[in-house]
Please model this.
Amino acid sequence: MYVGIDVGTSMVKAAGFDAGGRELAVEARPVGLALHEGFVEQDMEEVYGAVVAVLEELTARVAEPVELAGLTGQGDGVWLVDGQGRPVRAAASWMDGRAHELLDQWLADGTFETVFRRTGSAMFPGCPGPLLAWLDRNDPKSLDAARAAVSCKDMVFQRLTGASRAVTDVSDASMPFLDPKTRLYDNRIVELLGLTHRRGLLAPVSDPVATARTQGEGLPPGTRIANGPYDLPACALGAGVTTAGDGLLIVGTCLAALVATTGLDLTGEPAGLYISTDRPGHRLRAMPAMVGTAALDWVLSTTGVRHDEVDDLLARTPPGAHGVRVLPYFAPSGERAPFVEPHLRAELTGVSLESTPADLIRATCEGIGYAARHCLEAAGLTGSLAVCGGGTRSPAWMRLLADVLGRPLRVVEGEVGARGAVLAAAERYGVALDAPAWTRPTVIVEPEAGRAAFYTKGYEEHLARLDEARARARS
Model:
């Protein structure tokens, strides 16, 4: 059995695969988020405990020896650990908004743009740079007590293997300190963010990804394991997106658009980031929007509609949702791709007493689709498009999304991030796996020409409304 571990924001999963890529079993356990006045934090011990639990459940359920394991997980945020990988304080999530005033300052004084022009990283409040700077100003004792500021999977890797120090990989290091040309930390960026005296907290970058053997928690002792890449590039690997121009849309809590590229364009509006991969010269142009299925979850909760009712309701109202429109920017920290507006908020328009829950749900799905189209265009999509994530469980939404995007969708179901983690580990250990078989799409969804034409016009209207909303957010 090949094991992929995906430490998500709200769910921790362990998936087992056979040598041909067939999914044998999946174990999952939810983990909590503590939200308070813009702070979004996670209990590291709860997260690590969930990892150990799902691994124990998986290996008990599938009586096969573990050949190797690959680790991936949520990116960004700040996970402060001591020398053994144990928490110094609660982890600040990538969804955290406490550093928005610092980001406002850096947007105004040019620091934000300088960072992008040097690294290809458009900072947002929940990325390590602003969060570390905020902690340095407001909680310096935690930084003093820490040995490393890492990402989620790095903490898990150190705990599972008993490594003497924390390490990260080029993908997690990409935002915002990594120079994509040298694949080393850019000390000038550290200086610009006022963190030179905290430079020692940045974990060494293992290039290629680090490997080690487990100590025995969760997995049998001595199991070979590889650390990384984080969830976005892991999903790209798991969906077979490795050729320049091909793209991936992850319809999950975060709506992430990724396009494989060998280029590096640091001009244009600063947004998104370039994610370095294990292959030098190969990158992913990423436009990870803040909210994907979370927007639909909020609307479903507000209207009292269950997830299993969505497909039926989408069929009850026509394209355009009887004039209801949704700008789906629900995150408390605003938006980060394909533009950065920390104060942008969602807008719901065209609602009347005649509007139905079906109208609200279709309008939300259409709004998310328009946001996805915006991100994919900005990322430079020219080839095929794969889609994965929780949203793929709705066939009606996938048909709607194909129409809104105006292109076929290669829908890849299952634990795509965990698949990518295994493929990355196999490449690192020199284990030959049939990548095309592992990444074969479940189904291809074609757009319908008439609806696609309708949504092309709707997309133009969406961009116009967005421009107006961005202007209001700045005023």
Remarks:
- The domain at 2-233 is CATH 3.30.420.40 (Nucleotidyltransferase; domain 5).
- The chain has two domains: 2-233, 293-411+445-474.
- DSSP finds 16 helices and 24 strands in the chain.
